[in-house]
Design brief:
Layout (H helix, E strand, L loop, with lengths): L11 E6 L2 E5 L6 E4 H10 L34 E4 L7 E5 L4 E4 L3 H7 L6 H4 L2 H24 L1 H16 L3 H11 L2
Antiparallel strand pairs: 1-2, 2-3, 3-6, 4-5, 5-6
Helix pairs in contact: 4-5
Bound molecules: zinc ion (2 copies).
């Protein structure tokens, strides 16, 4: 199997974690990870080699390739999946082979975000939908911060969080709306 990034470079077995083997490229340091292997590993191992990870998440962002990548196994196009809002990195998955491509540093990134134990979840509609909603909420939030200023926004947001916890929140909202002129 050839590296999808570095044409002509063969992938070789590479240990991502104790007991978790992927097909790694020595040139770009990416790795193809079979989700079947991953599931087996996550059910049986899960003890992670502790290493101090304090790399800035964004630091690795420029290594992100934008183009859809071709699966080295079946030659179909792989699908990109956002990991988290804190990073621009995306994971590539071949839905046909159920194999994920991890760019250099992405496994470490998953560990840093404490998502290394939940890999298949990232590839679900529910996870991706949650990220889209969070992203939209962030856009709305930024717009209001720009309008009313950070301090006042914080006050409003604190109030909103308080409100969300009240059993009578609907009544309180109704009161605010009906009495406001
Ligand atoms: Zn490579
Ligand atoms: Zn494939």
């Amino acid at each position: 199997m050839r590296c999808p990034q570095c044409h002509g470079h063969d992938l070789e077995p590479k240990q991502l974690e104790n007991g978790l083997i992927a097909a790694g490229c020595q040139k770009c340091e990416g790795a193809m990870l079979s989700l079947i292997n991953y599931r087996f590993w996550s059910e049986n191992h899960q003890e992670i080699t502790e290493e101090k990870v304090n790399v800035d998440v964004m630091e690795q962002a420029d290594e992100q390739h934008e183009k859809a990548q071709v699966c080295p196994k079946c030659s179909r196009l792989m699908t990109k999946f956002r990991i988290d809002l804190s990073t621009a990195q995306q994971l590539d998955l071949c839905t046909h082979c159920d194999e994920a491509w991890l760019d250099k540093g992405e496994w470490r990134l998953l560990k840093q975000l404490e998502l290394h134990g939940q890999l298949p979840k990232i590839f679900t509609d529910a996870w991706q939908r949650k990220l889209r909603i969070q992203r939209m909420q962030n856009v709305v939030k930024q717009r209001y911060i720009a309008m009313i200023g950070e301090d006042r926004f914080q006050q409003v947001d604190d109030f909103k969080q308080w409100l969300d916890q009240q059993p009578e929140k609907d009544e309180i909202k109704q009161y605010l709306i009906t009495t406001y002129e």
